[in-house]
Amino acid sequence: MDWPHDPDGEKGSEGMRQYGHAVLAKKVDEEEDFPLSAADYVEEYGDHPIRIDYETVVSVEEIFEGVETEEFADFVEFHRELGRAMRENGYWFYEGADRFVGGSA
What we know:
DUF5785
């Protein structure tokens, strides 16, 4: 796929590799962008690359295919729904992430 920018370039990752959820969250302003429509987010950023792990890059649009919420009331709701969608669709590579889901530690 041709990306609008290199996910590991200065514009994509601030000079370092950044992964998944963090890159998605940096595209919104917690103070100004909510409530936020999922469709509007995908329209603006859908073709942007998101690095999932050291060898996998997918588009924002691919991640949002698993998102069920149409509008996010706030940043916390955005984070929770994206985390859920990413875990359920194999886009969450963090070891031990399952320990933090469902209240078990």
